[in-house]
Amino acid sequence: MDKIAIGPGYPEGVIDLDAEPAENIFRLAEAKGVPPNEITALILERPRHEAIIASVRKAGASVRLITDGDVAGVIATTDPDTGVDIYLGQGGAPEGVLAAAALRCVGGQMQTRLVFRNDDERARAAKWGITDLKRKYALNDLASGDVIFAATGVTDGSMLSGVHIQDEFIYTESIVMRSATHTVRWVRGKHLRSHAG
After folding, report:
1. What is the CATH number of the domain that holds 101?
2. 25 and 78 belong to one structural domain
3. 145: which DSSP letter?
4. 67 contact partners, CB below 8 Å, separation of at least 6
5. C-alpha to C-alpha distance for 156 and 82, rounded to whole angstroms
6. pLDDT of amino acid 104
7. Which of 1, 75, 101, 170 is the most exposed place for a label (fewest CB within 10 A)?
8. Terminal CA-to-CA distance of the chain, rounded, Å?
9. Helix or strand or coil: residue 173?
10. Which of 172, 176, 173 is nearest to 191 (CA)?
11. Domain co-membership, 74 together with 110
């Protein structure tokens, strides 16, 4: 799935999956009221993203590369403390839906398009009733209605701490979001190992 996402507070239509990455940088910079060199794009570090990275850099924006975690990458656009303004790139479709669910809870914009690598994937899409293989999906297409997003860190990441074991306790960190109330709750758990499932 090709993906582009920004956080809340911008006029609808600032980003467009069909525009060049540099064009999206210029449009976002204008909407934010800053020069392009004050925009930071988060991109998965993959060979397939070389053209995207080059386009973003040509526009004058900063590039921050991550090795994994595109759900957390999309969510990072919603938190000013991360310094991330836009997420760009290609990643898993299930992760795109999860990221859209989280973005619905806190606000933002996202566009995606499924990428089909072979006839088998196109046949699977047809089996699920997907007839327009070039359709662009907006945020509400991926996550509509009252959405609740919940995640617990397994390994340490940029958004959540992973599971840690110390003495007789297991420590976890989770996040729970809801679109109807735009609430975000952080939950730190301390579980007695003898009672853990």
Report:
1. 3.40.190.90
2. yes
3. S
4. 44, 45
5. 16
6. 95
7. 170
8. 35
9. strand
10. 172
11. yes
In the numeric block, which tokens belong to residue 177?
A: 């979001």
Closest CA to 41 of 82, 98, 2: 82
Contact 15, 6 (CB under 8 A): yes
Residue pLDDT tens, the chain, 197 long? 999 999 999 999 999 999 999 999 999 999 999 999 999 999 999 999 999 999 999 999 999 999 988 899 999 999 999 999 999 999 999 999 999 999 999 999 999 999 999 999 999 989 999 989 999 999 999 999 999 999 999 999 888 999 999 999 999 999 999 999 999 999 999 999 887 66
Distance of CA 149 to the CA centre of its chain: 13
101 CB neighbour count, 10 Å cutoff: 21
The C-alpha atoms of residue 139 and residue 145 are separated, in whole angstroms, by: 11
In which domain, by residue range, is 188 found? Answer: 150-195
Q: Which residues, 6+ apart, have CB-to-CB distance to 62 below 8 Å?
A: 37, 39, 40, 41
